[in-house]
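Something for you to look into today, if you have time. I want to see for myself how the chain folds. Leave the record below and I will have a look.
***
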Amino acid sequence: MAKATVTAVIVSKGLESMLRDCTVALSDAIAVVDSRVEVRVVVVDNGSEQPYEIERLPGVNQVIRLDDGRSFSAASNLAARSEPSDLILLLNNDVFLHSDALVEMLDLISSPSVGVVGARLVFPDRTIQHCGVVMTPRGPHHDYRLMRTETVSRAPRFVPAVTGAAMLIRSELFRRLGGLSEEYNFGSEDIDFCLRARQEGFRIACAQAVDSVHLEGQTPGRISLDGPARLVFSQQWEGRYSVDGE
């Protein structure tokens, strides 16, 4: 039986040392599932002052250089469409996957009802950064954020949404939805995608078996873009989602 194919997409600007650590961790995770999937790693150099050299990025198959720099959505869409595959893995440059992280993610997405799978992410101090996004009257919220990881269940969860910092997506679904919405610059495009996937009848899962590290907000200027993105999300989705669970 032929292996499933995965296009792993990392959008990055500068911060080459951190990106290298990200790709090393990704390579280790890929090695664990090598018998199951064939993974092609694509880095989008999103306007770095010093262009990346592929030889300095372990495990990377292609670097796409964007001199002008684009939104996270636009850059991710470009890379995801550059290489036909069965699955797309979106990964932030400040996420360092646990070597077993892809095992449960692949298990979960093998269910025909599941369209998107996220990963359990922790800060370096072992508190939860992400283990699923829930919807509240005030908007999306990272469930269990800042709780000690050892206090939160390891059972996989079905949730309204997951973060795009580490997100595995069925390529057919990605194409059907037209990729990430480019109405967003940086932020909330991941939640928007998950809600649209649910409208198509797919479930959103979060793998919980292991902890991967997410530094969060490392790209210069990234945090300042959250407010405008939340405004776009509110305009798109206010009153259109449930606040009582999956």
Q: What stands out?
A: The chain has one domain: 4-237.
